[in-house]
Write a structure and sequence with these properties.
The protein has 91 residues and is an alpha+beta fold. The protein is built from 3 helices and 4 strands. It is globular, with a radius of gyration of 13 Å.
């Protein structure tokens, strides 16, 4: 059963942001289903839909560790369950 999750990454653009996030996801068996990335006037913005069904770590651990990856990279990384994300952004 798929466990869709939304990852957002926001911050000042720099080399290696996508590489660090994707490396973490691959190392933790998180499958990227969809990805969108833009850079606007030097600011990086990425949104990913991922499946954490096969991940060996708990959602909260992945959430915390991605936050640490963000701190190391100089960006803010948020992980949210798809249903909560949808509820928060419903008009």
């Amino acid at each position: 059963m798929m466990k869709k999750t939304v990852i957002t990454v926001v911050g000042k653009d720099r080399v290696g942001i996508i590489a660090k996030v994707c490396t973490y996801l691959a190392n933790n068996k998180v499958n990227i289903l969809d990805i969108s990335q833009t850079i606007v006037q030097g600011f990086f913005n990425m949104m990913m839909i991922v499946d954490i069904h096969d991940a060996e770590k708990d959602f909260n651990v992945i959430q915390e560790e991605l936050g640490q990856v963000g701190e190391e990279t100089g960006v803010i990384i948020k992980l949210q369950r798809e249903d909560i994300f949808d509820s928060m952004h419903r008009l």
